[in-house]
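Sample intake sheet
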Amino acid sequence: MAPQNNVEGVDDNEALAQRIMKGDRAAEAELVGLYCDCVFAMALSRTRNRDAARELMDDVLMAVITALRHGSVRNTAQLGGFVRGTAANIINGYIRASRRAPRTMALNPDAVGSDPTDEYETQDRRNLAFDALALLNARDRQILQLSLVEGLKPGEIATRLGISSVLVRQRKCRALRAIVVYLHDDAPGYVARRMLRL
């Protein structure tokens, strides 16, 4: 989840964090621009609910900005790691809470059955997601599988695949961003396909 312009991003991260600590609202907007897609993709892959993913993205970015405003981030050079860790904690908390919540269903005497349109839309979204995954190269699919399905950390994935953890993070973020672009209703298909094949 490192900014794409700079492989290490250390100087940029520290400068951005310092600006936010000094109350620079433009720096806060810059941080949101840098990390919103990756955080949204992370939340969407875990919740499979676009509305919940948007709310979680807002919660994560607000938590990061609040921590930076108060100077609570110890290592600002590793800002991407802090964002990723915050996202994982908040998303996991949401999932735990939703599992504990009792499931209720409102009874509607007028409802004869479920609307088949909903089922078709769900299947259509699922097919789109599979189409997007199919366009990824094998290594990026493997990284997403290990990260999102098996829950491995970038360092563990790097060891298993014999590549650096920085490369794992970059490829994961790029793949998630491309999938979000591909799934977005008004995104041109050729842009998404080009991103997925990088």
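Comment: The CA atoms of residues 21 and 70 lie 7 Å apart. The domain at 120-198 is CATH 1.10.10.10 (Arc Repressor Mutant, subunit A).
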